[in-house]
Amino acid sequence: MKTKFLIVLVALLVSISSIANNEDVWGPTGHRATGKIAEKHLTKKARKKIEKLLQGESLAFVSTYADEIKSDRKKYGKFYTWHYVNMPLDARYEDTEKNPKGDMITGIEQCVKVLKDENSSIEDKRFYLKMLVHLVGDLHQPMHVGQKEDLGGNKIQVQWHGKGSNLHRVWDEDLINKWDMSYVELADNARDLSKEQIKVIQKGTVVDWLHDTHKITKEVYKSAEVGENLRYRYSYVYFPVVREQLQKGGLRLAKLLNEIFC
Predict the structure, then answer these.
(1) What mean pLDDT value characterizes the chain?
(2) 10, exposed or middle or buried, with CB in 10 Å at 0-12, 13-18, 19+?
(3) Which terminus of the chain has fewer CB atoms gathered within 10 Å of its CB, N or C?
(4) Phi, psi at residue 174, to the nearest 5°?
(5) What is the pTM of this model?
(6) Taking phi first (over 0 means left), then psi (-120 to 50 degrees means alpha), and beta for anything else, what does residue 245 get?
(7) What number is the average pLDDT over the span 16-33?
(8) Residue 71's domain spans which residues?
(9) How many Cα atoms are found within 13 Å in the side-chain-facing hemisphere of 67?
(10) How many domains does the chain have?
């Protein structure tokens, strides 16, 4: 009885810590893998312009910037709501009540707008490019399109190989970290796709991509019970989904950047 109590307490503390520290994103490895995959699919023209704008830094390197600036809530707090979209499982984005502070879709749209504007300063373009790289990554993390009442799974406490976690954290970091692969290894081992397959993935709008992710969100919510100990079987079933989402994010990011920097 005492052991069970301690397990529940640890899970609760981990969940509270995650929410308090805003750790509600793809982990650094996932974001960097998405950036690395995108780099492989840039046109020469886009790559050259991006390298100049980022002063030599890679998309993988800047992919975590939007998380790093969260610590300065006074200066960058207005961008916090850009990391997610809250919507019911049976809803479509177009029909939902929008966050007046903005969300992931409006954030991506603003980034694209600034980057396409010839009158934008170099500093603004650099900032919003870094934000865009991150937000497109977030768009492909299923729990970033989760329900408001459980904070995208942050309140759904589970165990990960016997240790306290929550459903959001499992999809942010636990699934990726368990495989112990670097972002380069993840990117280099992305599935080989034909040109036609890539076109199919890149087809559509940002909102279409959100709905594509939301299909997985629905499955994730059904994938675990509160307090369940998720182990090797869960990784076996869902790590391939994570890898696919990282690849989709990279390919779609490349499409946006190629269009912006054409």
Answers:
(1) 92
(2) middle
(3) N
(4) -60, -45
(5) 0.90
(6) alpha
(7) 64
(8) 2-260
(9) 23
(10) 1
